[in-house]
Amino acid sequence: MSFGAVNTAIFFFNFFVWGALTILVSEITVRRLRKLPEFKDKLGLVLASGVGMEIFNVGVALSLPQKFIRRSNQSKLPFLFANLDLLYAHTRRFERVFARMLFWMQTILISHLVVFGFIGHYKLHLF
Q: Where are the alpha helices (DSSP H) in the chain?
């Protein structure tokens, strides 16, 4: 099996897992959080309604180090991230694990696209 075929198979497997995690986090966690009155304007910056920015913001807030998120919430731009204290108070442990998995799977997918798109664009024959 060639490198390109293995690379494509890994990409599509990761894409499938990312899609499943997105659905799980959006249906289980974010939908419930949107209904709570405490989360009005506390799920981070939303550029367009209905495109899943809240899902990404929850994943970022739960995945990055707490010190970084707390410091950014005390800065001049606290609306960029979801409120970490409220998230921890209103989410269960497995929801936080799914949100972290979603964030890191999305990071891996984007990195994969950038790296292998660069290799393909410049026709670098590494293997």
A: 3-24, 31-35, 53-63, 66-73, 84-90, 93-121
d(CA 104, CA 123): 28
Residue that is written with structure tokens 């409120």 in the block: 83
99: alpha, beta or left, given left = phi > 0 and alpha = psi -120 to 50? Answer: alpha
**Cα Dmax for the chain:** 55
How far apart are the C-alpha atoms of 121 and 54, rounded to whole Å?
33
pLDDT in tens, 6-57: 778 888 888 899 889 888 888 888 888 888 888 777 777 777 666 577 888 8
C-alpha span between 62 and 65 (Å, rounded)? 8
Name the token pair of 92: 């269960």
Residue 22: which of 48, 56, 50, 45 has the closest Cα?
A: 56
d(CA 61, CA 44): 9
